[in-house]
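Re: the 341-residue chain
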Amino acid sequence: MDCNDSRSFLSEEQLIYAITVPLSTSIILANVVIILGIAWNRQLHNTPNYFFLSLLVADLCTGVALPFIPLMGLNRELSFSSCMVAHIFPNFLFLAFLLNLVMVHYERYICIVDPLHYNNLWMHRSCPLALLAAWLPPLLYASLPSFGWNNWTGSDWNGCCENGQKAAALTNCSTNGTMCCSYRRVFSNAFIFLEVYGLVLPAILTIAAMTGRVLLITRGQLRDICRLHRSVERGNATSEQEHRLNLRYTRCVVAVSLTFLACWVPYLIYMHVCIVFLISDTKWSSTTHIVLSCTGIGSMAVVPLVLGLANRQYTEPAHKILQKLRDRWGRGTQGLEEVAV
């Protein structure tokens, strides 16, 4: 008996690719557009955009690895080294993406909170070191299971194969040097708890706290502007310009709130559902796991795209190319109409 029922594995694999391939393609193409926009505009070649470019590269890698992340929840026959790479590399890309996202938010947070000391920020003085700090620690932490912090033992198979019989597992899953590969064998419970509650959740809360702090500062500055405007106009009534400023701020708050709900809440749900099933040590539906993981990771990978597409400087080259194509299409259509007449 094999480690996986071939029919169920193929159906689960098809479901994963059906969900992730369109999403992964969209993420990759959007990141490529923004990266090219930054590369072509020399005015954007500065330290803040280098940090954002690093985030886009991490998001691009996450988009490439997105189809392989749900496969981590399935049992497959792999060798020890292949099993480690299949679990460690996607986890490294995810952690690198998250740390780059925190770094970008922190850099912009300091720009607003303490603009006088912004240029003296350590990240600006040593940009290569800051970029290295965003990629090296995730690689070191994600590689810990390959150095022995794992559940990969010869006697404890944790019910990996369907019949749960160790003799059959050793006989059938060890052919050609392959064994039954599962995330439970690669990642120990302590490793997962430390990653979720020591790295991932604090990073998300830090991003949320910095974003909330920026919104509060913006609200205070908006009130000061309104007071100055009233003092200049010498009136107590709210002017049309103040209404526009308040409306713009309200839209900003709504956009940030909807972005957080759409991009972070699905991943938080997926993360805590995984922890609940890990603690209870119960088997859950593979379809549920696939849908939650694809939705959670995919929605989180959209965050840099929202930040990039909202900046016209990043998308200006793409707009110019589209405008040229529209002009050519319009001239071609007009020429055909004239010939027809």
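The radius of gyration is 25 Å.
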